[in-house]
UniProtKB/TrEMBL annotation:
It catalyses: L-seryl-[protein] + ATP = O-phospho-L-seryl-[protein] + ADP + H(+); [DNA-directed RNA polymerase] + ATP = phospho-[DNA-directed RNA polymerase] + ADP + H(+); L-threonyl-[protein] + ATP = O-phospho-L-threonyl-[protein] + ADP + H(+). Keywords: Activator, ATP-binding, Kinase, Magnesium, Metal-binding, Nucleotide-binding, Nucleus, Repressor, Serine/threonine-protein kinase, Transcription, Transcription regulation, Transferase. It comes from the Eukaryota. This is Cyclin-dependent kinase 8. Residues 28-334 form the Protein kinase domain.
Length: 435
């Protein structure tokens, strides 16, 4: 009887695939745990050349205590695809994506600081305002990155201090595109995929009033909230979020709206004609009227007429009247002394720069350090005996929390990078086509 001894094509394919596969532990030494968020956990890591990275591991789906593998989530696909298609000096850079043991790892450049750290450092440690040169440089770079995203028809939809990173060289990096979406010809309506976007304190009034159609202006409102928070070292609109009911219906965000009205005054049909078409307009009419006190607020925080005017125009209730990121970038505030710089820390002493980001070890025994390799060795040195990387990253943990007495909650970002600011160096490899 003839026995077929020819090689099995599938076995050959699998052998070649496994031989060429990139394993996380063969390339990166885990230095510690940074933070956890809705979709995953973030770790600080070092490659064989000594370069630092932030590695985000996506969480698998869970039903009770049982982990189920149902494929890659829509959110993960969207975040990976958008990050791979964009490149700008003020947006965090994705280096690579690794699929290992049914887990997805996104490897980013690393940044030592974020806006939330800077706010806490000045409010809790230094107990003094962030200087105007630093403030202006941070917001200018933030707007520069946002102009790029909006020119690529991308809405960030979750701008807040913890998601805006700063390198040790004072360069701003917009991070965490987990909620980002294409605004031009999306595959499904923006409201359909994510009914709740933007952390409540930074959420634009049209979203709070139930708008199902929105545009870039929601990001510009968030920028104004971030600017105000940097200037005052506390959230300007710190409301309590009403949670979804058992049927996942969106509640009326009464408290958050009142916090906005207490500073900006109550909106009216004259200044915002389309407000009457919003789902929560009837509920809005039942609230007491408030006068506009933004000028008084700015007198104690920004002390600049041009700074007040920038905030006023970014805080316009009508999204069609609100400044775009590009218009804000050309505002007079950035043209008066002190001028913004590409290094936000250039004008300050080292004590005004926050300490390096804290890293911890997971509280599970498996989160002990991997056997360290010396920077400059070949990546194979990371294969020395030690706990597998996939095991190292899977331990449960208690996230290192920063609880500010000023009332900030600890929001977490994902990663960071290095570079320079400039309008002329933006680059889009190709226009993404994602929903």
């Amino acid at each position: 009887m003839h026995v077929d001894t020819s090689p099995d094509p599938m076995r050959i394919y699998r052998a070649k695939r496994d031989a060429s596969h990139v394993y996380v532990k063969s390339k990166y030494n885990i230095l510690g745990f940074i933070s956890s968020g809705t979709y995953g956990r973030v770790y600080k890591a070092e490659d064989a050349s000594g370069n630092l990275h932030a590695i985000k591991k996506f969480k698998p789906d869970k039903e009770g205590d049982v982990v189920t593998y149902t494929g890659i989530s829509q959110s993960a696909i969207r975040e990976i695809a958008l990050n791979r298609e964009i490149s700008h000096e003020n947006i965090v850079s994705l280096k690579e994506v690794i699929l290992e043991d049914k887990s997805i790892y996104m490897v980013f450049e690393y940044a030592e600081h974020d806006f939330l750290q800077l706010i806490h450092h000045h409010s809790q440690t230094l107990r003094c305002p962030i200087s105007i040169p630093v403030l202006k440089s941070l917001i200018y770079q933030l707007l520069n990155g946002l102009v790029y995203l909006h020119s690529a028809h991308i809405l960030h939809r979750d701008l807040k201090p913890a998601n805006i990173l700063i390198t040790s060289k004072g360069q701003v990096k917009i991070g965490d595109l987990g909620l980002a979406r294409l605004s031009a010809q999306p595959l499904q309506p923006l409201f359909a995929g994510d009914k709740v976007v933007v952390t409540i304190w930074y959420r634009a009034p049209e979203l709070l009033l139930g708008a199902k159609h929105y545009n870039n202006s929601i990001d510009c409102w968030a920028v104004a909230c971030v600017l105000a928070e940097l200037a005052s070292r506390r959230p300007i609109f710190k409301g309590e979020e009403a949670k979804l009911d058992s049927k996942k219906n969106l509640p009326f965000q009464r408290d958050q709206l009142l916090k906005i009205f207490e500073v900006l005054g109550s909106p009216n049909e004259k200044d915002w004609p389309s407000i009457t078409h919003l789902p929560e307009y009837t509920s809005l009419k039942r609230l007491d009227p408030y006068p506009n006190r933004l000028f008084d607020w700015c007198q104690s925080c920004l002390r600049s007429q041009a700074g007040y005017d920038l905030l006023r125009q970014l805080f316009m209730y009508d999204p069609d009247q609100r400044l775009s990121a590009r218009e804000a970038l050309g505002h007079a505030w950035f043209k008066e002394d002190p001028l913004p710089t590409t290094n936000a820390f250039a004008s300050v002493n080292s004590n005004q720069i926050p300490p390096h980001r804290r890293i911890t070890q997971d509280d599970a025994p498996s989160m002990s350090m991997t056997i360290p390799f010396q920077p400059g060795q070949s990546g194979n040195a990371a294969n020395a005996p030690g706990p597998p990387f996939t095991q190292v990253l899977s331990g449960s943990s208690q996230q290192a929390q920063v609880q500010a007495k000023s009332g900030h909650s600890h929001h977490t970002g994902t990663s960071g990078s290095l570079g320079d600011v400039g309008h002329g160096t933006t680059k889009i490899r190709k226009k993404p086509r994602l929903g």
